[in-house]
Amino acid sequence: MATPKPYTLKDGQTYYKIQVYLGINTNTGGKETTTLRKDPMTDQRFKTPKEAEKGALKAQMEYEQQGNRKTEVRKKKGETFGDVYHLWFEHYKTTVEETTWVKTQRDCKNHVLPVLSKYLIKKIDVTKCQSFYNMLAQKLVKHTLMFNYARSVYKFAKTMRMVAGENPFDLVEKSKKKVQRVIKDFDTENIENENFYDKEQLVEFLNYAKKRSDYKKYTFLHLLAYTGMRTGEAIALTWNDIDFENFTLNVNKSLGSGENNRAVVKFPKNETSIRLIDIDPITISVLKKWQNMQRGILKRSGLHSKGKKQLIFHNSKNEFLQRTAPRKWLLPILEENNLEWITLHGFRHTHCSLLFDAKVEIHEVQERLGHKDIQTTMNIYTHVTKKAKRKVALQFANYMQTGIATEDINLVMSNFSYYLHQLEQITSEIDRNDLPTNYFKELETHQEKIKQLQNKKLNAILNAI
Predict the structure, then answer these.
(1) How does pLDDT run across 403-416, given as a tens digit for each residue?
(2) Is residue 375 a contact partner of residue 409, using CB atoms and an 8 Å limit?
(3) Architecture of domain 81-171
């Protein structure tokens, strides 16, 4: 038994404390120790070393009466959940890509092992599993995924004949209530995350991005917005993925994070993510301008271009960008210009919603974005249409107040914003020879529509908005 040690309170009174070895916890198989300052029976502080020693004996007896062991039993390999997890994980690594098992390892380290690792695998019952699920469901959107990792570990233990009977994780009652995803704005207040822009917001963002950022950053953000690519897909692009003559982009790879944050080139998320998509003349011209600028940057930096296999977006060593780099480009643009919050993935959502606004068929949107499941595309469509319905009352009020239909208001403002954006693109960076002749006719048509509608009390329209 440890030697009691004196300690003094603020009132000057001296008492004694003692370090006590209680025994072996039957749930975790681990040693349990505690520091006693009071008698477990009387709750009185120890005034002498002798009182402290007696209190230690009482604590050991009480602990043993709770069903715990006094002496240590030698553990077998794989006895705890943590032991089984490590055996399972070594097998799991052989069945998935490196980027997948790295993510799984991180998730389990953060959300599964801190709760379950010390439990003896044979002592895990439905009660513990239910408690674990309830805890996950209260704080995680992807709680089912974390729970399924734990269930897989127990299933592995059954396969290895470490446990018998039913898998207690299969008997858990799951909640149907979804955890609402929230994000923090720049003032650290929680706000609902719609995470996509309408057309006017996107035009505003890109204008600020062009003024604030260097051209590489602007090109990257423009490409996300105009193609709906995933961030990892855009980072992995090389110049041979762009067909400047046929105005197409080949999405055939993605960048993921391997062990120790090592950059790993992999296939896109699923088979349908490998796709050939059309890109517009403006995006082609933005890419051409960046390609010319990139050659000069590499030459001045003493770096050699890799030709057609040259990365479109590279770091200072002409290697892959860190996946976190584009987010660092995005945040200052949003903060400095007080723009609506959006994430990088939000530009993919934006592209999808604007395709629906443009009356593109759902199956075409699915193919362009590489969604494996049409339901994913439908979910975004439902979100967009619900948002549109909320505008009905405002449209009625505007009409009653001004006598001007919302359709006319939208046509003026939408075409006006679109015209200015397109005109700015053409005058600042686009080689007119890169664009088809009818492209300019389209711009002239938009300009003519604006002139026609100016006679419909444009000032009243602007006030209504």
Answers:
(1) 655 555 555 445 55
(2) no
(3) Orthogonal Bundle (1.10)
